[in-house]
Amino acid sequence: MTDYNFAYLDEQTKRMIRRAILKGLAIPGYQVPFASREMPMPYGWGTGGVQVSAAVLTPEDRFKVIDQGADDTTNAVSIRTFFERTAGVKTTTKTTDASVIQTRHRIPEEPLTEGQILVYQVPIPEPLRFLEPRESETRKMHSLEEYGLMHVKLYEDISRHGHIATSYAYPVKVEGHYVMDPSPIPKFDNPKLGDMAAIQLFGAGREQRIYALPPYTEVVSLDFDDHPFEASKADHPCGLCGAEDSYLDEVIVDDAGGRMFVCSDTDYCEARQAAGHRGKDAA
Amino acid sequence: MYVAVKGGEQAIENAHAWLAEERRGDTEIAELSIAQIREQLSLAVNRVMAEGSLYDPDLAALAIKQARGDLIEAIFLIRAYRTTLPRFGASEPVDTGEMACDRRISATFKDLPGGQVLGPTFDYTHRLLDFKLAADGEVPEAPMRDADLGDVPHVTEFLNREGLIEEAPYDDTPPPDLTREPLEMPAERALRLQALTRADEGFTLGLAYSTQRGYARNHAFVGELRIGAVPVEMEIPELGFAIEIGEITLTECETVNQFKGSKTEPAQFTRGYGLVFGQTERKAISMALVDRALRWEELGEDNVGAPAQDAEFVLYHADNIQATGFLEHIKLPHYVDFQSELELVRKLRREAGVDQVQEAAE
Amino acid sequence: MTPLLSVQGITKRYGAHIGCADVSFDLYPGEVMGIVGESGSGKSTLLNCMAGHLTPDAGEVVFDTRAEGPRDTVRMSEPERRMLSRTDWAFVHQHARDGLRMGVSAGGNVGERLMAVGARRYGDIRDKASDWLERVEIDAARIDDRPTTFSGGMQQRLQIARNLVTGPRLVFMDEPTGGLDVSVQARLLDLLRGLVRDMGLSAIIVTHDLAVVRLLADRLMVMKSGHVVEAGLTDQVLDDPQHAYSQLLVSSVLQV
Fold first, then answer.
1. Angstrom distance (rounded) from CA B278 to CA B281
2. How far apart are CA A237 and CA A246, in angstroms?
């Protein structure tokens, strides 16, 4: 693939995306429209994240891609291979070694540090979309901070279920102004969004939006005073590494209802196992 | 003992190798050439060029071959390729009045200067499977006569002369570019037309059909449909004037639509417009009907809440590459979001007392 | 005393057609103004211009805001005007469907305005919603039901509760009893009269039904072809109409 420019996109396009990123960083949580390009992978498969990564990657970077927390799920492999071919950057599966991490649906368990960039793939960037389908109206609601409707949704959840029944893509308020969709991460990950040392960039290719959280931004999950936000996960330790503090995938192990819980963050799990931690299902 | 799934990379490679083999099919059967696809599946090629927004019959034929005949996949290949091409400049607007028409019909006037030309059309063919084609596709040469070299003026110009149709004043403001700027609402007509010309044919057809059935009916007549080649000119900065750089085939449809008029404006007809790469007449007519439906606001018509009147709805859902990507992404892993839903449902059921039996049994 | 609302020279045209022309009046706190006229008389256009749903071609709508005193709401920025609409103003639509969220429970409908101005205790929102349901004579046990399961009269009462929950200082009502059965209308009017009296509400009510204004309005304006043809105290206008058109209106009611 040497016929293509470094990281696939031409420099003109990358400049355009970088401008959108800078604007996003300047106005945390605000959705910046950008002229998303057709990429050689389908819309909805991470084209927003890929364009953001392409715009921020430099030849010295070390790149990590996770999907559902794992480095070796098919779409993560596909995107990692894409940048190995088009940018020739070094890749890694170690969270601590990576300078740019592209993710779909998770934030790594290992706290990120200054100098790292976390790039999220975003399917629907508009947190108000399912309450108000019209883009012209939602943009107005954001600019006027008319977020009563968002709380009506939470109110309805509690009145029907006794709880806020949003378990992923849980809306947050950024620096006291913009309500933002954190992408479909489980709400377990929401507390990591705020006050993070790394830069967080969100790319929605099909919807042509980029937004961002600069380091150490205040991010608050929406809730009621008497029904506070709760970051929940399956109430088990990891079957492989025994971790009690990580988000878990449920795996069905036989056809008799047997199941086990393992870390969704494969790098975290492997590092713990290498350090000698063992869960009850480990060999 | 459980071992986490590994080896995604190998699985992907193997799947792609198998795909390549399936694409080729039985090797006893001769392989299709690009030229065969270009010449004999030309309407498929035209659709791929139109919705891929790249006029190159050979590349479109290659894309169709690579996509195993899946036209949306082929359009996707063309779009992804197109976006990497450097942009040297923009052509002068093509003049469809100068079109060398292969086909030119009007449903509003029986005869008119330039005449009615049926051209290579499926119209009036009886849709009977031609089993002879299965054995031998060779055909005798079609009869020919010399082309009339006279002018073929646009039908709407006749109406315009009498003031019977709304003016379409010349406007040389550069149109916005959908492929370089994000689509933002409200979208002006130039931008809407740009989105519609590469919109999915099926989606556009369905919307157009819905207007005919009463969802924002606008009483369209095909004022004129013309298909043919037009020269493309581009101004070369070094020369300082425009020169012809090639020729493309286009389908253009202008509809004449009813309009009641208002207190301030006398009754006159209004226009819908469709212009699409290649011989793509179903698409061009559909486009004209949808264009007209979207103009309700500027024409002071009622919004009856029909889908075809809703620019946000139409433009945000008309692109089949966006649509198919997002639709198909739901087959990607969603373990994490699903897991969080699973836990929530379990928790809610537990609290409702439904799952006590099951929990106890575990 | 400063008027709560001072309308000056409001004019709205639709092309060559006049919606309403040069309408001026003052509304004082605690006062209810009725605007009557047949359909097409411009009363709804006027109401929508005052409430910020339409932009008038000329004129001012000066509202005595809490923070800054009298302000022309026509020239206010949109955020300010939208803020007013969800705090100090309320708008009761003729059709409850236009003023309610039909897919949201009764409690959510009433609670929305509270949440829009920052209420963040679920329990308080719910208590207030139940209280308001009771006040508009809806069984609080229906708090989690959607308005789609309510009768027309209940939907209209729910819309009123949703509007009054934040204690607005000015309520715009567009044919609040329109489209309801006569017996349902009577109950609603009774309820409205009670609320207006108890809360000391200021309101502007547009209606073609003179019974509504006789019961609710302190003062009355009669509109015809976009112009105010007569204005005065309700009883005065109804008992002794001066303008020929008002006489016609009143007599047509008396015949019924």
1. 9
2. 8
Computed over every residue of chain A, the mean pLDDT equals: 92
Which residues in chain C land under pLDDT 70? 253-256
Q: What is the pTM of this model?
A: 0.82
Under DSSP, the state recorded for B242 is E
Task: Tell me the C-alpha to C-alpha distance, in Å, between residue B119 and each of B100, B103, B124, B167, B174.
Answer: 12, 4, 12, 30, 34
Tokens standing for residue B44: 């498929």
ipTM: 0.86
State CA C91 to chain mean position distance: 5
Question: Among the options A24, A49, A205, A238, which is catalytic?
Answer: A238
- Identify all chain A residues contacting C147, using CB atoms and an 8 Å cutoff: none
Number of H-type helices and E-type strands within chain A: 7, 12
Q: Which two tokens stand for residue A123?
A: 């399917």
Angle, in degrees to the nearest 10, between helices A47-56 and A11-26: 100
Secondary structure (3-state) at B11: helix
Mutate to test the interface with C, among A154, A157, A224, A230 (most CBs of C within 10 A): A224
Backbone angles phi, psi at A203, to 5 degrees: -120, 125
Q: What are the tokens at A193?
A: 């969004």
Q: How far is A166 from chain B (nearest CA, A)?
A: 8
Query: What is the C-alpha to C-alpha distance for residues C164 and C86, in angstroms, rounded to an integer?
Result: 10
Quickly count: other Cβ atoms within 10 Å of residue A245's Cβ.
11
Residue B262 near chain C (CB below 8 Å): yes
Domain boundaries, chain B: 9-82, 96-120+149-324, 334-362
pLDDT the model gives residue B356: 56
Cβ distance B165 to B269 under 8 Å? yes
Compute the nearest-CA separation of C82 from chain A (Å): 8
**A44 among known catalytic residues:** no
DSSP letter string over A147-200? -HHHHHHHHHHHHHHSS----BS--EEETTTEEE---S-BGGGHHHHTT-SSEE
